[in-house]
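Same chain as my last thread, 296 residues:
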Amino acid sequence: MHGGRLMQRVADVAAGRTAPAKPRDAATVMVLRPEREGSGLSAPEGSAGSPERELAPQAGAGIEVLMLRRTAAMRFAPGAYVFPGGSVDEADADPGIAWHGPDPAEIGARLGASPELARALVCAAVRETFEESGVLLASEPGGPLPVPSGSSWEADRNALTAGSLTLAELLSRHGLAVRADLLVPWARWITPEAEPRRFDACFFAAALPAGQHAAGHQAEADQTAWLRPANAIEAAKTGSISLLPPTAAILHEFASSGGLGDILGQRRKIAAVLPVLAAEDGEVWLQLPDEVAYPL
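reply #2:
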């Protein structure tokens, strides 16, 4: 939205002349793996994008997080580096989706959501992660996670992205269940009330399943990156990449963590973060709650 129009909307919402838009429920997954030497940015299959080697992580102990650069054609946050995720679809609430892991009520209690919404959020998280990165957090009940590779899996992934295949149908076709036990609720961010396009997004952390490889879907991402959290923050500070506030704040938390085991072992009681847009001296500023450690 143009600066002048945004300033007017901020003033109108603050004065009660314009009602805030209702945020859409959304789910995002931070896919993590132990740090590897020589990894960095790479273009997804079929993309004309070229690797940005200067952002390659350094060798040593630590973690890397999967990030996708949104294409310039995207309506929301074009060009930003984000974690896989998106809005909850109606089909994500299908009770027929096979489930393995904690009761949805337990997850909902940590997210501040009803059991029904918590279940839909986890299903959306699994669906969006597979659509956008090819990483599938599902398996046969009690069995190992599959490696979804080959033309048949790619066709299913494209059909899921296009909406001609639902998550329930995909999992039933392969005899799989959503692995809710692999998703660690981490954060919840709600878009400021003055924004015309709003999301109530829940963030989950998960480890990259053994044998699986990430590849961005070229309709939404033109770069696929495995980045050390600290490196991603430094790149954003220098202007090499663009990060949204929730992304930067979560990367900062990961950079201060004790590693993969520490992150995945946490059982957080999550409070929603609601930033505020405020107009001052002819500019619009984003104000974050004091408890948020923001690195940019």
